[in-house]
């Protein structure tokens, strides 16, 4: 149950030291046997003096052997708010970085809200650094989160963000171009070259926005980690494209891990794909169950148009999502990857 | 027992309190209107250099190393308020005898603060902490204490060291005896009273009375025959036998400090030094009254170049100084600020810069040039605090975000007093951010993401999908956990399907079949598109129909195949304005 990161400065070719080798003589017996007994050439004397000096110095700086490295204490595990997930992972570790990744509609936000609800019920203060400004406050209330204990940092637009109502947006004209109904085959009517140019422009713009948001997220995270006192700090990078998120240098994740170490803070990162590498102590992959469609079939769903439900759509209701959670990596519990399934219910499901 | 706090050479002491770096310099205070400015007070170094009260400013300026400062009523009132705070921190019965003299009733304080000597030294130390070097004398009656405190200044001059004297009961005449006659005359007498006192002293001097011992030894009847009741009163004072009751004063809880600058400040960095000094003085005064503050108000008088610059340099940088009371067009203020704060100020050839400026506009500009401009910022804190460093950092961050816009000539800082917060920490309480640290962190985060984009969420009483607002995030250690109904275990453990919103909502092209969406394409987000596999709805919502921002919409829950996975979206059809939007994704 313990983990030890062996950081070694061993250059290629430099052997690791083990307990029984640490006190071994520098000169090998074979070399010693080849020398004539009782006779030492000046070169050999100088070499032995030099090597003994090196040996003394090595003992003086007292290199720690791998087996003598300090064993890190096992972090305290805190419930994530979802019993099935706790059964899989043992909870969320304090003082560690936990990654939860998955595509859209894979239950990442539900897990995040469950963790927030659990933390605020314990009386802890939490911080959510929302890279995409995508948090729905009503979902917070439904999840039973104490709103007074949650600090919400909305990254993204700096100033002059409009009040977000569709009518307002239309007045602004920014999104009007896209909201106007177009014929279903509008893509065919549009010249291919135009579409490519527009696509490149869109992607570069969104990439620029993502980088701007990422920069804000990293700076804010540094500040919050330095401030301390929060029981749970969440980096919501779920809306950042993986190609942008991967630009976060690994040293940044190391810094975050070191900053949160030995503190009673859970650092949780929500993202589309794993990006923190070995810095995360726990990595969970979420996904919608392939049998999700069958779940919806309770509403007589079928992909086959022939089999499709003939009942009107207002007779259907989205009540729950079945989420598959797979434990990809855990530094705390070295067991083979395994997965569980849990359900999230919509607010109106009762 | 009574104590007296007396500040010798008060105008100089007030100036030194505002500018402590002048402690080692020769300093002279002048007042009056040019060109008739006259020196009214000097320190010992200046006196050694040959400067004395009564000289003209022009004469004093001949001394090269002399720091000349105009008498500031603001500085003197601040120093006096600091003295009052010092006295009030020891005794509730304080008489405001004069601007430089306070009397305290020490009855019953020995059990609280220790012996009279300890109390006197503590008063001296507290006054020094507040930036004032005072003489402290303790005696059995107020006037003896006052004379002794004034006498300390006469005997010791401005020499360094503790000027504290405790006169034991019965030793008043003996201790006061060596003091010169001048201590009997109040410095603040004016007009006839001053002349009368001077003639009295002259008469006594003619008689060969040089000190209080000699005056005390005079026969009462003979003295009464020659000088009347006034002579007897002086003799009583000299013997230390005059008793009276104090007239207590209830000082108002006003904590203000100000600095008037000789040369305008154009950069924020030197401003921070001055703010630090003011904040330390205010915090020391608040601490002496066992108070904290929840609101700091910073008011700065700006150089009136702003108005001129407004007229001739409409650079078009939008105004941020909504708090500033600007005599001119506020649009130009930040532009000047940028120029000045970037170190390009000082060369304002505004009249020749713009050829379009007419003579009338020039005259208007010059009128504005003469008018002062006020810049005000208010720093509201969620909890009472008392940390000058935190306040300074918060003010710096605030001024960085809202630059004053012009050179600063006067700084005025006031603090709204509040009871310090009392919080009982517990070993088993969950961790909470330190309020001071959190405030700084929030201010820094606000500088990164914007002021309105950090805080706690507050839901509004509305059905509008974005019915919430941001409010200040406060972390109180001693805050009780809300006693809500404990939900059933199963309910508490059920995860909620959350909605992730797109802000702003994504405009979508929707293919309809029988009035129901069958295909979704989102041009701004390429990965939000595909055939609709499943749908629920429409659910109709509307609200605010009585206002201009009425809304009415149909909501759909859609399952869309997104590559190899299925994504669930909330699709909205705006019934008033038309158009389809993807509002969010269920996640």
Descriptive report:
The complex is a heterodimer of chains A (350) and B (587). Chain A has a domain at 77-159 and 192-349: P-loop containing nucleotide triphosphate hydrolases (Rossmann fold, 3-Layer(aba) Sandwich). Helix content of chain A is 35%, strand content 16%. An eight-stranded mixed β-sheet of chain A has the order 5-4-6-7-3-8-9-10, sandwiched between helices. In chain A, strands 1-2 form a two-stranded antiparallel ribbon. Chain A has twelve helices and ten strands. Chain A has helices spanning 29-34, 42-61, 83-89, 108-121, 137-142, 166-172, 176-179, 186-189, 192-227, 242-245, 250-260, 292-296; strands spanning 77-78, 92-93, 97-101, 126-130, 150-154, 232-236, 266-271, 282-288, 320-330, 338-345. By secondary structure, chain A is α/β, with parallel strands linked by helices. Chain B has 587 residues and is α+β, with helices and mostly antiparallel strands. Chain B has 19 helices and 21 strands. Chain B has helices at 10-18, 44-48, 57-60, 73-88, 110-113, 116-129, 142-156, 172-176, 192-206, 212-217, 220-239, 268-288, 305-312, 333-344, 350-353, 359-370, 388-401, 435-449, 489-493; strands spanning 2-6, 26-31, 38-42, 66-70, 94-98, 101-105, 135-139, 164-166, 255-265, 292-302, 373-385, 408-418, 454-459, 468-471, 495-496, 499-513, 516-521, 529-543, 551-562, 565-574, 580-586. A six-stranded antiparallel beta barrel of chain B has the order 16-17-18-19-20-21. Chain B has a five-stranded mixed β-sheet with strand order 5-6-1-7-8, with helices on both faces. In chain B, helix 13 runs antiparallel to helix 16 (359-370) and helix 17 runs parallel beside helix 18 (435-449). Chain B is elongated, with a radius of gyration of 35 Å. Mean pLDDT of chain B is 81; it is low at 306-360 and 485-491. Chains A and B meet through helix 4, helix 5, strand 5, helix 6 and helix 7 of A and helix 18, strand 13, strand 15, strand 16 and strand 18 of B. Strand 5 of chain A pairs antiparallel with strand 13 of chain B.
């Amino acid at each position: 149950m313990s983990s030890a990161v062996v950081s070694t400065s061993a250059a290629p070719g430099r052997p690791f030291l083990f307990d029984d080798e640490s006190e071994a003589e520098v000169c090998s017996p074979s070399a010693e046997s080849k020398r004539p007994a009782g006779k030492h050439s000046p070169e050999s004397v100088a070499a032995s003096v030099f090597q003994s000096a090196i040996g003394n110095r090595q003992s003086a700086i007292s290199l720690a052997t791998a087996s003598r490295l300090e064993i890190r204490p096992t972090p305290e595990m805190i419930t994530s708010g979802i019993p099935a997930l706790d059964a899989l992972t043992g909870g969320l570790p304090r003082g560690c970085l936990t990654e939860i990744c998955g595509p859209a509609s894979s239950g990442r936000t539900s897990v995040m809200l469950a963790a927030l609800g659990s933390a605020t019920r314990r009386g802890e203060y939490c911080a959510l650094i929302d890279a995409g400004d995508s948090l729905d406050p009503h979902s917070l209330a439904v999840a039973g989160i104490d709103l007074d204990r949650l600090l919400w940092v909305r990254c993204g637009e700096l100033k002059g963000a409009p009040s977000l109502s569709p009518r307002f947006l239309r007045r602004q004209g920014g999104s009007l171009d896209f909201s106007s109904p177009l014929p279903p085959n509008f893509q065919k009517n549009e010249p291919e070259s135009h579409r490519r140019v527009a696509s490149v422009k869109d992607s570069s713009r969104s990439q620029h926005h993502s980088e701007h948001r990422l920069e804000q997220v990293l700076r804010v995270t540094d500040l919050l980690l330095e401030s301390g006192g929060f029981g749970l700090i969440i980096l919501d990078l779920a809306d950042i494209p993986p190609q942008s998120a991967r630009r976060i240098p690994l040293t940044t994740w190391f810094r975050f891990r070191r900053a949160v170490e030995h503190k009673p803070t859970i650092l949780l990162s929500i993202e589309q794909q794993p990006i923190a590498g070995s810095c995360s102590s726990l990595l969970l992959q979420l996904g919608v169950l392939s049998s999700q469609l069958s779940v919806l079939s309770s509403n007589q769903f079928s992909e086959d148009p022939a089999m499709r439900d003939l009942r009107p759509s207002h007779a259907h209701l989205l009540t729950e999502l079945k989420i598959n959670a797979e434990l990809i990596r855990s530094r705390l519990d070295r067991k083979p990857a395994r997965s569980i399934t849990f359900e999230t219910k919509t607010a109106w499901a009762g | 027992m009574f104590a007296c706090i007396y500040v010798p050479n008060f105008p100089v002491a007030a100036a030194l309190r505002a500018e402590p770096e002048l402690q080692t310099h020769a300093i002279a205070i002048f007042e009056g209107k040019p060109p008739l400015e006259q020196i009214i007070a000097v320190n010992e170094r200046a006196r050694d250099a040959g400067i004395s009260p009564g000289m003209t400013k022009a004469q004093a300026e001949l001394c090269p190393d002399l720091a000349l400062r105009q008498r500031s009523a603001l500085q003197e009132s601040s120093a006096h308020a600091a003295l009052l705070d010092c006295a009030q921190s020891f005794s509730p019965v304080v008489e405001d005898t004069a601007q430089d003299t306070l009397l305290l009733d020490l009855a019953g304080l020995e059990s609280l603060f220790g012996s009279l000597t300890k109390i006197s030294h503590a008063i001296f130390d507290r006054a020094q902490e507040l930036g004032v070097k005072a003489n402290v004398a303790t005696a059995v009656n107020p006037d003896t204490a006052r004379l002794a405190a004034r006498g300390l200044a006469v005997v010791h001059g401005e020499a360094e060291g503790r000027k504290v004297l405790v006169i034991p009961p019965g030793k008043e005449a003996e201790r006061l005896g060596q003091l010169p006659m001048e201590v009997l005359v109040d410095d603040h007498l004016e007009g006839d009273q001053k002349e009368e006192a001077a003639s009295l002293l002259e008469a006594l001097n003619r008689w060969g009375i040089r000190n209080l011992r000699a005056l005390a030894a005079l026969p009462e009847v003979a003295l009464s025959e020659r000088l009347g009741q006034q002579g007897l009163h002086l003799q009583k004072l000299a013997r230390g036998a005059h008793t009276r009751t104090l007239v207590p004063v209830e000082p108002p809880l006003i904590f203000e400090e100000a600095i008037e600058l000789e040369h305008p400040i154009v950069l924020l960095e030197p401003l921070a030094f001055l703010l630090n000094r003011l904040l330390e003085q205010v915090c020391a005064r608040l601490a002496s009254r066992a108070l904290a503050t929840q609101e700091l108000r910073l008011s700065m008088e700006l150089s009136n170049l702003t108005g001129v610059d407004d007229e001739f340099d409409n650079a078009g940088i939008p105004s941020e100084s909504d708090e500033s009371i600007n005599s001119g067009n506020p649009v130009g203020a930040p532009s000047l600020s940028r120029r000045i704060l970037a170190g390009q100020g000082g060369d304002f050839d505004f009249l020749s810069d713009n050829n379009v400026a007419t003579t009338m506009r020039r005259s208007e500009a010059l009128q504005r040039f003469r008018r002062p401009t006020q810049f005000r910022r208010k720093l509201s804190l969620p909890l009472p605090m008392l940390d000058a460093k935190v306040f300074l950092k918060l003010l710096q961050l605030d001024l960085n975000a809202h630059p004053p816009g012009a050179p600063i000539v006067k700084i005025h800082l006031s603090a709204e007093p509040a009871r310090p917060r009392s919080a009982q920490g517990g070993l088993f309480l969950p961790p909470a951010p330190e309020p001071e640290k959190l405030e700084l962190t929030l201010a820094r985060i606000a500088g990164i993401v914007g002021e309105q984009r950090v805080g706690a969420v507050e839901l509004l009483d509305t059905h509008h999908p974005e019915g919430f607002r941001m409010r200040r995030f406060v972390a109180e250690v001693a805050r009780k956990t809300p006693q809500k109904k404990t939900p059933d275990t199963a309910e508490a453990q059920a995860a909620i399907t959350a909605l992730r919103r797109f802000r702003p909502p994504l405009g979508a092209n929707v293919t309809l079949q029988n009035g129901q969406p069958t295909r979704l394409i989102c041009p701004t987000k390429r990965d939000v598109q595909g055939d609709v596999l499943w749908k629920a709805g429409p659910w109709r919502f509307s609200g605010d129909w009585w206002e201009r921002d009425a809304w009415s919409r149909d909501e759909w829950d859609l399952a869309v195949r997104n590559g190899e996975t299925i994504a669930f979206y909330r699709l909205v059809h705006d019934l008033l304005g038309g158009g389809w939007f993807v509002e969010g994704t269920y996640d």
